[in-house]
């Protein structure tokens, strides 16, 4: 049977790279996001490249009340779900403006919990499937430069960890992906250090590799594991003074 | 962000914008507050053709749109690379109609420089195989152009170096192949005369190119290896081989800039003699990649030239006067120890129709020169030789020629400027190159 995967937030650069990776290995793709017209163009591209079935669906992560309907309307349930959507927002703005802060929390955390709860229950009952969540190294420790986004990702990381434990009894795999810097639309115009910045293609390759090995948590690129190990162990006294 | 071309000279602190749709690009164009803008593909042009204060990068505009497997017409967005086209379509029995010496260029870049390949003598340049182009103009509108629809805009956009607008999508006609292999024939020639005769004699081959040992002087001047190729048939490769399955190629890369002294004359001599020594005469079946893309096996090889970067000097001379002119150029290169690492020679066919296309009937020679304090002066002198023989320089490789040199070589520049003035009167699209040349 043809394996299929649902990609949430499919217009993102990382999602497109992941979709290509899965498409190139013969997976059918269900692309979900806010701009269906754009996703239909991706769908046509993936069909042409990989000769796989691809469909595009409208999905808004923060329209929580629509999530159940969205899930029910999918033609056949996918084998797995990859949750890629996210919102970085502006740290400074979100310190003063609740709407901006709420948007980051709703997109990165609440929206993800809302839709993945539904998928998880379905998979649990079916006793098969996988869930991959794209969180962030920003969730490993709150830093002054992006702790609103970071705390929402921290929540998402904790959610995935708990979900993994719960679903392990039902043969459902849950994987947490923690990218460091990635050159995408999200980081465009920011000056991230070139040596530490991955391409979406590298991230997608890391995700695929880790998925195949059944890893619970994966940092991408791999060196972020060590960078974060250091960062979480910096004593509070020192951490406060670092302009991180 | 510091941006530069393949030759790593010049560079500019530029803002780079990406976009994944027409609407997105329109918004980006509006948001640009100061300076000019120019489209940028994979940055494989050597000099300043795709440099400006604002770079409109097509890196995210890279979707296939449709493919007609009866005609071979591929419609795709302009940021699709030739490499992706090969990956997808070679296994299905299709090949690019024309390909430059690297697969890492975009369709937009291939059109905007109207690139040529080893089959120029029978296929013309890339644009010859482009059915239509959709481009976004300075005012944000989208124009479709082709040989029959707005033909002037088409002739100005092909080899237009991004100066008429940003190409969004295009239809390109692919050619069929029976196998992914090439039947390659190698001929060694002792000197330039022999090489030029061989080019004429072997004009029946679809693909031909010559590698010149440009440090050989005297009676060995122009000593070279001629490489000829045909798409191999199933019969050529033997029935047992899978015609399209190729083993993936391992890639090497040059991880950092090597110091300039690496490129002293001795090293270059050694490189040339190794290359020369390796080429044996005769026919063999090879995969298409090493035949078309010998340099793509080493990623970022341009770094071999060190921090100061290098110039690729590519010229074309009309056939009648070509032999004498080539000799003069090669003599200069050899005698001055300019350290040309690679010299490529090819016989072009008929001139292409776009106003600023580079290729025209005659001989083209491409030489790489590491940048030194005296290089530009030498090249200005070389320019006058080229100009005197009625030749011209390829802008996509250029970072230093003077405006007069360009104007002398491209007599249709006035037609080009007329079209550009109509579609971009305020010069929103400009590159460092177009400013330098006064286009
Ligand atoms: C190793 C090597 C071998 C090469 N061999 C050959 C060869 O055999 N024959 C040959 O002809 N060339 C050759 N080239 C040159 C190369 O093919 C051209 O410079 C080509 O234009 C590069 O395409 P790009 O996508 O990298 O574009 P860039 O270098 O980014 O841009 C090149 C030009 O195209 C314009 N452009 C790019 N995209 C668009 C768009 N979407 N809309 C409008 N304008 C656009 C830019 O503004 C710029 O003027 C070679 C280059 C290298 C590095
Ligand atoms: N880039 C990095 O350095 C980096 C580092 C660590 C983690 N990440 C994470 O990686 C993921 C992908 O981001 P990216 O870097 O690829 O950036 P991106 O291209 O900006 O992707 C963000 C995606 O989220 C989608 N999205 C935002 N709000 C949404 C909503 N309400 N409903 C549905 N979709 C919504 C966007 O869709 P639209 O197209 O509709 O706007 C877009 O597809 C994100 O979760 C991000 O937090 C990125």
List the helices and strands and how they pair.
The complex is a heterodimer of chains A (244) and B (439).
Chain A: E1 4-8, H1 13-24, E2 28-33, H2 36-50, E3 54-58, H3 67-73, E4 80-83, H4 91-96, H5 98-126, E5 130-134, H6 147-167, E6 173-179, H7 200-213, E7 217-220, H8 224-233, H9 236-241
Parallel strand pairs in A: 1-2, 1-4, 2-3, 4-5, 5-6, 6-7
Helix pairs in contact in A: 1-2, 1-7, 5-6
Chain B: E1 2-4, E2 11-13, E3 15-18, H1 22-31, E4 37-40, E5 54-57, E6 64-68, E7 73-77, H2 82-89, E8 94-95, H3 107-112, H4 120-123, E9 130-136, E10 142-146, H5 151-157, E11 166-173, E12 175-176, E13 181-189, H6 192-201, E14 207-212, E15 224-231, H7 234-237, E16 252-253, H8 265-278, E17 282-287, H9 288-292, E18 298-299, E19 310-318, H10 319-336, E20 343-348, E21 362-370, H11 375-388, E22 392-393, H12 403-409, H13 413-423, H14 432-437
Parallel strand pairs in B: 3-5, 4-5, 16-18
Antiparallel strand pairs in B: 1-2, 6-7, 7-11, 8-12, 9-10, 9-11, 13-15, 13-17, 14-15, 14-20, 19-21, 19-22, 20-21
Helix pairs in contact in B: 5-13
Bound molecules: flavin-adenine dinucleotide (FAD) and NADP nicotinamide-adenine-dinucleotide phosphate.
Residues 6, 38-45, 49-50, 58, 78, 100-102, 105-106, 108-110, 112-113, 115-117, 161-162, 166-167, 295, 396, 431 of chain B line the site of flavin-adenine dinucleotide (FAD).
